[in-house]
Design a protein that fits this description.
Blueprint: H1 3-16, E1 23-25, H2 37-41, E2 46-48, H3 56-60, E3 66-69, H4 75-86, E4 90-94, H5 103-116, E5 122-124, H6 128-136, E6 144-145, E7 168-172, H7 181-192, E8 199-203, E9 218-221, H8 230-234, E10 238-241, H9 250-257, E11 261-265, H10 271-274, E12 280-283, H11 288-299, H12 303-317, H13 322-336
Parallel strand pairs: 1-2, 3-4, 4-5, 5-6, 7-8, 7-10, 8-9, 10-11, 11-12
Length: about 350
């Protein structure tokens, strides 16, 4: 349970008046050493492993009338889904997959329609691409709601004009092949040899943690808790995310809330919600040359373009928040309209 989901769930607990129990998988500390979740939620979390063998009734002492789950591919989650439905409850799923039309996606859609669709009373998705996917999978339009992923505007906010910030790119996330950080560093090192006014800061850990410092302009920081990244975003002019595949990308919302311009791979799902020609430059993530050209375009922004980028990032980011998550989840629950179960 990362911090961004904790903020969203906390807002739902605050606004819904529902009796909410929270179950989450133990974090893998070597990958994402997340702490402080229960402080944000203001209540205890029941931590389990992916091999959990108990039923929900054994864990909670009752059967919930609504199960909001993420992970229908996992055996224990599927057991929870079946248990709730067999006892008269309803299931709302959280799915962050993005829509990319392909033969594999068509096969997945057929499987979902035949085996999974009737298990869910509703589905929460991050944004436009997720809604398109779930409609393709056969879910009714009014059973699919956006707002699943959101950074907290109380933590991430703009602060000061981009023109007063350092000439700096920032990256936040895993330092691995899927996030494409090696190409990003190679592209920046190429440009740094010609223009040392700019710098690149990376926050995260992964298989490439010790192999990214290709020039003096690149600084690599270890994994940092979400709220402690806020100052880093507010010190940068542009956030870069060069993922080879990215279902949505909460870091894009964090950066947009912070007023940053965006430099995005054309495979980033949140580009449909948070980016356009006014605040972003897009590129093919498999080409170092394309990344170089995109960085150069950002470096050449005029004062007017920097002001426009900041204004547009802030405008688009304001349309997504924990309150939107809360409102949309409450709307799905209201549509279910089932009586409470005593268990």
């Amino acid at each position: 349970m990362p911090h961004y989901m904790a903020w969203a769930i906390q807002k739902f607990i605050e606004e819904s008046q529902e009796d909410v129990e929270l179950i989450a998988f133990y974090p893998i500390q070597s990958e994402v050493p997340i702490t402080g979740v229960e402080t944000i939620l203001k209540k205890k979390v029941i931590w389990i492993s992916a091999s959990e063998g108990r039923t929900l009734r054994e864990i909670l002492g009752r059967h919930p009338r609504i199960l909001v789950e993420s992970g229908w591919h996992l055996y224990c989650i599927n057991k929870f889904i079946s248990e709730v439905r067999q006892n008269g409850g309803h299931v709302i799923s959280m799915c962050d997959n993005a829509f990319h039309l392909s033969l594999i996606e068509i096969i997945k859609a057929i499987r979902f329609r035949l085996l999974l669709r009737n298990k869910f009373s509703g589905i929460m998705v991050p944004g436009i691409s997720g809604k398109r996917l779930m409609r393709f999978y056969g879910m009714p339009r009014d059973s699919v709601m956006g707002g699943l992923y959101t950074a907290s505007p109380e933590v991430f906010y703009s602060g000061r004009p981009l023109l007063e910030r350092e000439k700096k790119f920032i990256y936040v996330g895993r330092l691995d092949k899927r996030k494409n950080v090696m190409r990003v560093c190679r592209a920046f090192a190429h440009l740094y040899a010609q223009n040392s006014e700019w710098s690149l800061e990376l926050f995260g850990r992964g298989e490439f943690s010790d192999a990214l410092s290709l020039c003096e302009g690149i600084k690599v920081h270890d994994f940092t808790q979400g709220e402690h990244l806020a100052d880093a975003y507010r010190s940068a002019r542009c956030m870069i995310l060069a993922s080879l595949q990215e279902n949505w990308g909460v870091v894009v919302h964090e950066a947009a809330l912070s007023g940053c311009a965006l430099l995005l791979s054309d495979r980033v799902g949140s580009k449909d919600d948070l980016a356009n020609a006014k605040n972003a430059v897009f590129f093919n993530p498999r080409s170092v040359r394309a990344i170089v050209n995109a960085m150069m375009r950002i470096m050449e922004f005029t004062d007017a373009e920097w002001r426009q980028a900041q204004s547009e990032s802030e405008r688009l980011a304001a349309e997504i928040s924990p309150s939107v998550f809360s409102r949309n989840l409450r709307s799905l629950i209201a549509k279910v309209s089932v009586p409470r179960l005593n268990g």
